[in-house]
Amino acid sequence: TLGEGNTPLLELDWSGKPILVKLEYLAPTGSFKDRGSAVLVTALRGLGIERVVEESLGNAGASLAAYTGRAGIGCEVCVPHDAAAPKLAQMAAYCAEVIEIRGKREYAALAAWAAAAHGAYYASHVYSPFFLAGIETLALELWEQLGRRAPGALLVPVGSGTLLLGTYNGFVRLHQSGLVDSVPRVIAVQAASCAPLHEAFIGDHDAAAEVALEPTMATGIAVRRPVRASQILAAVRQSGGTILSVTETQIEAARNQMAREGFHIEETSAAAVAALDVLEASDLGNGPLVVVLTGHGLKTRLSE
Is 161 left (phi over 0), alpha (psi -120 to 50) or beta? Predict the structure, then answer.
């Protein structure tokens, strides 16, 4: 552990809407990924793994690098050439081997798979059940902070979907245990520049088709074809939620307004906040609306 969890849950008024913001960007490495990494790396150390490899746009790689460093496990991170410089510097600071891959972002995943074929353990935050189990703690923690109840709705940015699925699974467990009356509505948000899940949702599809990747400042959710798309779509529908998309202008405006409120968040987090302006009353359940602020603004703004 590096002390992950127990992040603040604060009240905020957003254009007249009372909301709660969960400050996951105050985790040890600056993103919610630390919850998953803590469980994943603990499991890997127990299995005697000596070296791991992962592909990442930034936050997952930085988190894995920190926790493997703590555990004495070697770490390689394959990153696309357009990853944010502060995130690359953070990985290197934890003594990970950062391997920059030119070309399409998907090539970083191919490079990681190749490294895994030659002996390194593939410690993917997207595929690992250990990682998802760690993210479930976010639901349990919200339940505690809300006085042993679930929020009415949960608003999260979504790319690969680990935050959404882990938190949803946690609330399902609480519901199955009789500790909450219902699972909160899950409201997922994508950047309009790369929104395969949004398109699949509004088209009433059970899977997401690969989409073109247009430039977006919300790089953390710029995933052209999420491998867990069918699970994400099912979770959102089963919760009675929805999947929205927001423009670059809306993301930037939300990021700047949050900064004026004292919250320095990265653009991926701001995408979720931006969705507050397009939410319908019917999207909200009974109880408070919680917005998860996933990553720290210092991870991206320094590279501008």
Answer: left
Output the pLDDT for position 303.
47
Task: Tell me how far apart the 2 most distant CA atoms of the chain are, in Å.
Answer: 55
The pair of structure tokens assigned to 58 is: 């930034």
CA distances from 191 to 101, 241, 244, 251 (A): 24, 17, 9, 8
3-state secondary structure of 119: coil
Question: 165-207 pLDDT, tens per residue?
Answer: 999 999 999 999 999 999 999 999 999 999 999 999 999 999 8
Q: What is the pLDDT of residue 125?
A: 93
Q: Average pLDDT, whole number, for the chain?
A: 92
d(CA 71, CA 35): 15
What is residue 145's DSSP assignment? H
48 sits in the region (left: phi over 0; alpha: psi -120 to 50; else beta) called left
Q: Two tokens at 126?
A: 């997207």
Q: How far apart are the C-alpha atoms of 113 and 78, rounded to whole Å?
A: 10
**What are 272's two structure tokens?**
């979720």
